[in-house]
Amino acid sequence: MKKHNFSAGPSILAPEVIENTAKAVMDLNGIGLSVMELSHRGKDFQAVMDETVALFKELLNIPEGYKVLFMGGGASLQFCMVPYNLHKKKAAYLETGVWAKKAAKEAKFFGDVETVASSADKNFNYIPKGFTIPADADYFHITTNNTIYGTEIHEDMDSPVPLVADMSSDIFSRPIDVSKYGLIYGGAQKNLGPAGVTFVIVREDLLGKNERAIPTMLNYQTHIDEGSMFNTPPCLPIYTCMETLRWIKKLGGVAKMQQINEAKAKVLYDEIERNELFNGTAEKDSRSLMNICFVMKDEYKELEQEYLSFATSKGMVGLKGHRSVGGFRASTYNAMPIESVQALVETMQEFEKTHKK
Amino acid sequence: MKKHNFSAGPSILAPEVIENTAKAVMDLNGIGLSVMELSHRGKDFQAVMDETVALFKELLNIPEGYKVLFMGGGASLQFCMVPYNLHKKKAAYLETGVWAKKAAKEAKFFGDVETVASSADKNFNYIPKGFTIPADADYFHITTNNTIYGTEIHEDMDSPVPLVADMSSDIFSRPIDVSKYGLIYGGAQKNLGPAGVTFVIVREDLLGKNERAIPTMLNYQTHIDEGSMFNTPPCLPIYTCMETLRWIKKLGGVAKMQQINEAKAKVLYDEIERNELFNGTAEKDSRSLMNICFVMKDEYKELEQEYLSFATSKGMVGLKGHRSVGGFRASTYNAMPIESVQALVETMQEFEKTHKK
Fold first, then answer.
1. How far apart are CA B188 and CA A7, in angstroms?
2. Range 9-28 of A in CB contact (< 8 A) with B
3. Domain boundaries of chain A, sorted by first residue
4. B243 touches A at CB < 8 Å
5. Which residue, among B291, B246, B250, has the nearest Cα to B268 in the 3D structure?
């Protein structure tokens, strides 16, 4: 039976990305060696690194003055690397969920942290608006997509101080104006590749401005100076990212990706609104195109487990909502085909027919 | 033409490890999903993590009280994590090469560092002996195998303070007495798997003993408490490590691995000693079983490039020595078959016949 992979991350990758990765694991470009067993400093892997960086720059239209880096440790390691490098006296954070809180927690190891606004009052089901970013902050940190709650910041905001964004779960889902950001980072395992590599896009002139002694591996300048090869980078995960970026480019780039994502999300959000059994959890203008969270209406609440079993029997995978929201979460990342969203909608309609009171 | 992969790292992996990884990239255990697109918290990946930890414990005979962790960032990130967690007043380091020096450099961010002994006087071509480990150090750090210089510490030394070992390039190459170590770490990309995952074996009672505030991701206790799943681990690299450990177990374990490694190294060291054109660079009792470094004798020095081209034409890969030693380096990690070492020896013999003065 065909699986429809709605996992929140690690998550679905395009079939050709998976196939090409398997081929490169067996033999990279016919050189007779696996991509796993090559020197990272040899020309074969250097070509992979160079193309991956070039595709980042091309697809996101990254301006001069920014560097694209790859490292290990996940976005969670960036939670402390960002303040290690950028925090001087005070950092400002937007609190839109658990991951945003975790990021802010690490900044507190380095000094003052101001929480500019929070949506904790409604279990993070909206993106706060109308807040003022303090002009005396060293940077302002946002989490653009909140996987657990299904909320997303859809525009590139203006900030009087360097804007730092965790885009782990919506990078490459839409065009972004990189020039509005000081630093963008994220784990690969949603829209890019397998877990094990983290990307960082950083405006180089922001670095080296504080007095702190920074351990070598935690200093962005180290990775800039060595082209992400100060030590051995996660070669295989980077290879898969390159394949995903090739696939996005072939598809028409991030503007086309956004159209596809909007079309997919509309199919599911429309059904959630129409269906008598379900309710969306996020406020409408904060709804994510990447993670679509919904629950059963109060009068059907006792059917949640039954619906989940039914959907699973129809091939849906990873649909259970995070425990802090409950219900269901359909992650509709870039690689998710609209056919899988339609298959999910069919299960909702079929379940409605048989269970509507 | 068959390639003989002598790369220093990332390096050769066993053919069945490569094949099984490619299969799991396409479909893990027939579940219909790639190992790259599964939730790390689902039962399918949890089984991978559990088996990998269990095989570490079984193959290395790890005693109670130790934890096995997997994280990203490479051994270079451990260079600062070790002192972050263990340095109180003074740490002691054995200086056996560039990597040992890099490790010590990071400890200096956290306090005093004593270099107990060094082989810098002879370009690190031997392992220092007869040194005294200071009893007032918080820990003593060694690099058991020095890839660049082809030297190796072959025994588990007694230390009056916790012994910390970077075993990136010789883990699983021989039985070790883990109880003699406080902490063992290493990147996977030599004897274990692809680049992108780092293992840590740590005696849990050493942790939490200093006053330092440790950022969450840099605190070993975080990873212990969450079973290496505080954040998304590098799932695919861990999968490949599991396949390598299965292969080692099937082969007969690390004692058998050591026999095989000794036999392989003997073939090449014997030829280096016999051949009129070549000289080994490491002192005999410090010679590594993992990286075998040799140069051309002075009277043949001008033939180095020609020999390298000849060997390359016969399928040898990654044979060029590190620039700080020159000449040649044959890395004969666990997965290197003796047939490849014999093929290398044949090129040396053939070259001797045609070039001996």
1. 27
2. 9-13, 18-19, 21-23, 25-26
3. 15-251, 253-355
4. no
5. B291
Beta carbons within 10 angstroms of residue B177's beta carbon: 12
> Is there a contact between B13 and A37 if contact means CB atoms under 8 Å apart?
yes
Buried b (16+ CB within 10 A) or exposed e, A273-298: eebebbebbbeeebbbbbbbbbbbee
Q: Nearest chain A Cα to B318, which residue? A: A39
- pLDDT tens by residue, chain A, 357 residues: 889 999 999 999 999 999 999 999 999 999 999 999 999 999 999 999 999 999 999 999 999 999 999 999 999 999 999 999 999 999 999 999 999 999 999 999 999 999 999 999 999 999 999 999 999 999 999 999 999 999 999 999 999 999 999 999 999 999 999 999 999 999 999 999 999 999 999 999 999 998 899 999 999 999 999 999 999 999 999 999 999 999 999 999 999 999 999 999 999 999 999 999 999 999 999 999 999 999 999 999 999 999 999 999 999 999 999 999 999 999 999 999 999 999 999 999 999 999 999
Comparing CB atoms, the residue among B37, B84, B106 nearest residue A7 is: B37
Q: Which fold has domain A15-251?
A: Aspartate Aminotransferase; domain 2 (3.40.640)
The answer to whether the CB of B38 falls within 8 A of the CB of B45 is: yes
Give the right CATH number for B253-355 from 3.90.1150.10, 3.20.20.80, 1.10.3810.10, 1.20.272.10: 3.90.1150.10
* A187–chain B Cβ distance below 8 A for any pair: yes
Q: ipTM exceeding 0.90?
A: yes
A323 touches chain B (CB under 8 A): no
Task: Report if pTM > 0.95.
Answer: yes
Amino acid at B123: N
Of A18, A198, A216, the CB nearest to B34: A18
